[in-house]
Design brief:
Layout: H1 6-29, H2 39-78, E1 89-93, E2 97-100, E3 111-112, E4 117-118, E5 120-123, H3 124-136, E6 140-145, E7 152-153, H4 156-169, E8 175-183, H5 185-191, E9 196-205, H6 218-223, E10 227-231, H7 243-246, H8 252-277, H9 281-289, H10 296-301, E11 307-308, H11 314-320, E12 332-335, H12 336-346, E13 354-361, E14 364-365, E15 374-375, H13 376-388, E16 392-401, E17 403-405, H14 406-420, E18 425-434, H15 436-439, E19 446-449, E20 454-456, E21 462-466, H16 468-475, H17 498-523, H18 527-533, E22 538-540, H19 541-544, E23 552-553, H20 556-566, E24 574-578, H21 585-605, H22 609-619, E25 625-627
Parallel strand pairs: 1-6, 1-12, 2-5, 2-7, 6-8, 8-9, 9-11, 13-16, 13-24, 14-15, 16-18, 18-19, 18-20, 19-23
Antiparallel strand pairs: 3-4, 10-21, 17-25, 20-22
Length: 635
């Protein structure tokens, strides 16, 4: 039992020791027995019991120490270590790390408390810097895409940016080759950037197109006697974040926007693959519809791969490409994460002038704090800090957010306005910058997005879960109260009244009006145009350019280049990442607690963990929110 769940077992040990102490003390001291025991026996038995309890406590403490040693050793074992890059090295993208949109301030990021193992977290900026440096590094002969690790890419737009960086690397004249036993669609999209693609003779390929699957919970709420009341403007028919709680399937409006999103994103992916492999797009879609490349020989016949090889035969490929092996006939590989670490260590401060990258990664929530959300006051303070820093000449805000609190979004928006008045501000959108994520983006001088970015969702809503009947019918819990006024404690002991619903709706309408007016102001568009493309509708980055929601396609590198140009810095500037790190023992324990609880929840929910987190995030939003909970993941 300890091996399966050490944290629970340690707690159980302490509770058992306390229970042993109390129960034995009662027995030995005669509590609840005859009163004829002597005082000496009482003292002796008390001492024995006390010493036994102390022994149990010591054993428990030792086990806790060992548990911490295991955790710290696991973290230390995964900490970034500098590696030597030998001449004739091959840069290997093996997904041994997770490519993330932003650096994490969580000291336990990537650490799995269930297995006591850790996965390296590689922020996008480090990966891009590494690939840029590898172009001119004479020690790096080429790139080997061998995507079989436990990591991956956390977002479709990140995959697009990584692919573009690999395409840019090829301009150096160095080779890029890919090999895998099996290719998922995301892996193959990345592999299509390679000069040659190889597959194991008995492998396979998933190439079936994109699907956007949504879970609906209305049936569950009905069974639990929970009623969801939704407040959204009439115009926001596309604001689908609330639909899983009030409908059993997609509304017609939601189906319309989801279909267009999937079609747009697939055209981006399929178009890139068709161009890279020299396959007609119509032919590629016919192959996809009929699942004609699931087997290796089919993939070879249709030009999806160049040859079927076993992995050891890749040595012959490297030899043909002119890479020299060592004295033992082995080739020198350095992973992208390892190489990125060395590149970071080698960076020199070439100038006092800086382009600062500030990250807005996660759902937007009220207040101050650190972690996996964007705290409105904390991000606003960070933006105020770079505004006051004279060395910072331009700012790139990297937004990867579904939105969240309308109030927190407005707090951030105000600071963006103040920052823009003094320095160029460029927004770089990640996999999604929707709803509140777009609200905080619209003041920027320039908005840059990937074609696979999900953006827009200009709309608001409020949601109230009425659990009065659920508590009464399922648990037998009822409520009663006295009030000074009619609507005091609204919704606590009785359903919302018409007056209370009207009050909430007035707030929702006001926020929507503010949202659309600010977009019109920031994007220099007529309000009528904004209202036409708003309504809560989500757009792909590919479609967002034509309707004025973004200014150009591109990733983080493009945004940095535009920022430097706007600030007149030329090539003489330094890119700095502004990362707020939590400090103190309380922050450390809080992060540890979150990690342990998530590991325990995942062990119970398994494949449903993603849906659980999505519902938890959506239902935890308070007040009026600007939120888009769905994120397409390209696998």
């Amino acid at each position: 039992h300890f091996n399966q769940n050490p944290c629970n077992s340690i707690l159980s040990l302490y509770l058992s020791a306390f229970h042993f102490f109390v129960v034995t003390l009662r027995k030995k001291t005669g509590i609840g027995t005859k009163l004829g025991q002597t005082k000496n026996n009482f003292v002796m038995n008390f001492i024995k019991t006390f010493l036994a309890a102390i022994l149990a406590f010591v054993v428990g403490s030792v086990l806790v120490v060992f548990l911490w040693i295991f955790i710290l050793l696991g973290i230390a074992g995964s900490m970034e270590k500098s590696v030597a890059v030998h001449p004739e090295s091959i840069l290997k993208l093996d997904f041994s790390e997770v490519l993330t949109d932003a650096p994490s301030s969580d000291p336990f990021a990537g650490f799995d408390f269930a297995t006591l193992q850790s996965t390296r977290m590689l922020p996008l900026m480090k990966a891009l810097r590494a690939l840029e440096a590898a172009k001119d590094d004479p020690r790096i002969k080429g790139i080997y895409l061998r995507m079989n690790g436990n990591g991956g890419v956390a977002g479709s737009a990140l995959l697009e940016e990584l692919r573009e960086a690999i395409v840019d690397f090829k301009q150096s004249g160095k080779f890029v080759v890919a090999y895998n036993e099996t290719y998922s669609q995301g892996q193959y999209y990345l592999a299509s950037a390679a000069d040659k693609i190889y597959m194991q003779p008995e492998g396979g390929m998933d190439w079936s197109g994109l699907s956007f699957n949504l879970a609906f919970y209305k049936g569950l709420l009905d069974k639990l006697d929970v009623k969801a009341e939704v407040f959204r403007p009439t115009a926001c028919k596309y604001k689908s974040a609330v639909e899983p709680y009030i409908l059993p399937k997609m509304s017609d409006a939601n189906r319309e926007q989801m279909q267009e999103l999937v079609n747009s994103m697939w055209n981006t992916i399929a178009g890139s693959v068709a161009e890279a492999r020299g396959i007609d797009l119509e032919t590629l879609n016919r192959i996809t519809d009929k699942l004609e490349v699931s087997l290796p020989e089919d993939a070879l016949e249709h030009g999806f791969v160049d040859s079927l090889l076993y992995e050891d035969q890749m040595n012959d490929v490297f030899a043909e490409l002119g890479v020299q092996s060592d004295s033992d006939g082995q080739y020198n590989f350095v992973t992208l994460g390892e190489y990125a670490l060395q590149v970071s260590a080698d960076l020199k401060n070439i100038s006092a002038d800086q382009v600062a990258i500030v990250y807005a990664d996660g759902a937007i929530v009220d207040g101050e704090g650190f972690g996996r959300e964007i705290y409105g006051n904390t991000l606003a303070a960070t933006l105020a800090g770079v505004r006051a820093d004279e060395k910072v000449k331009a700012v790139v805000l990297r937004v990867n957010s579904p939105g969240g609190s309308a109030l927190a979004s407005d707090v951030i928006w105000r600071e963006m306005e103040l920052l823009k008045a003094e320095k160029p501000v460029i927004v770089s959108m990640g996999s999604y910058a929707a709803s509140g994520g777009y609200y905080i983006s619209c003041p920027a001088d320039v908005i840059v997005a990937d074609k696979l970015t999900l953006t827009g969702s200009i709309g608001v809503f409020g949601m109230y879960l009425n659990t009065i009947d659920a508590l009464k019918n399922k648990l037998g819990i009822t409520f009663d109260a006295v009030k000074s006024n009619t609507s005091a404690g609204m919704g606590m002991t009785s359903p919302l009244t018409p007056a209370e619903r009207a009050s909430i709706m007035r707030g929702v309408d006001k926020v929507y009006t503010t949202f659309t007016n600010l977009v019109a102001q920031g994007r220099n568009l007529p309000v009528e145009k904004v209202l036409d493309i708003a309504g809560g509708r989500v757009w792909s980055g590919d479609n967002a350019l034509g309707i004025g929601l973004i200014d150009t396609y591109g990733g983080l590198k493009t945004a940095i280049a535009i920022a430097a140009d706007k600030a007149g810095l030329g090539d003489n500037f330094r890119v700095t990442e502004v990362i707020e790190q939590p400090t103190g023992f309380a922050a450390f324990i809080s992060s540890l607690n979150v990690g342990i609880r998530e590991a325990m929840t995942r062990s119970e929910l398994g494949v449903m963990m993603k849906e659980y987190k999505q519902v938890q995030e959506a239902t935890s939003q308070q007040g009026i929110v600007m939120y888009y909970p769905f994120k397409l993941e390209l696998r």
